[in-house]
Amino acid sequence: MKSIAEDLLPYQSGELTIGSHTLRFLDEGAGEQTLLCVHGNPTWSFYWRSIVERFSPTHRVVAVDHLGCGRSDKPVRGRNAEKGQFPYRLADHRDNLVHLIDALDLKRVTLVAHDWGGAIGLTSMLKRRDRLARIVLLNTAAFPPPYVPWRIAACRIPVLGSAAVRGLNAFAGAAITMAMSRNSLPKDAVRGLLAPYNSWTNRVANDAFVRDIPLTSKHPTMATLRQLESDLPSLASVPSLLVWGMKDWCFRPECLRRFQQVWPQAKAVEIADAGHYVIEDANEEVIAAMAEFLQAEMPGPDPAANAVPQQQRDGDVR
Fold it and tell me: Region 90-101: what's the mean pLDDT?
């Protein structure tokens, strides 16, 4: 079977069966250290292609495609597993990623995350705290949204929002220009980023992620984000790198400042003229910052990991 954008992302995807669905991921390189790359919306593992190219000679690089994204299955949104549905909540993506971490036996993990990948990746690594060695975050958040940009709010309008996101490609398509600041995306990058999201059916996750942004305490993802926010200080001792495109209108500089407040030892690299797709907009700076960060001596086991509540470390990821 031909892989999505295989001419632009010439790596074979691994497969993990979760329930009735197939989760796909890149698994390139080898070594004692793992870079676990976790994308957001509306990107996919293609977003991490330069990470794979640069670091797979020295690291194991694993880049997941969340269900509904990239090369993974794109089930109908819903809570009836017997009918092949998938809920598309933050907690569901977290659980899938924990299954992947366990199935691949990932160790000495550097979490590399962007957009929704920050919340998904951090909640997952908190469940497997003893496997976490470093954190690299790019324009993301890990707390209830302090604001909702009007561009996002418009995509949440009942009926009309879904029609625009899924029918007109108003989210993934718009991001091609709106998530950039310094540069314009090359044609191949545009084609690669959009390749999985070419129909109403295949844009199910684009819409679901937008609707999973919790605005009230009644939303099921609000509790997940509040718990993550309260757990962030427990990661303050983990060596962390925060790389930020400061022209991002979505995960604005105040999101960076929130991380700096709870992780005062984190190294921050602010790229003044880069936008939300920071690794596309300022690739050389991002790669250089990561290379320098990864060259630092790998920390030993963190005694604090032993203090993580047992329910976060056992087999029940829920």
Answer: 98
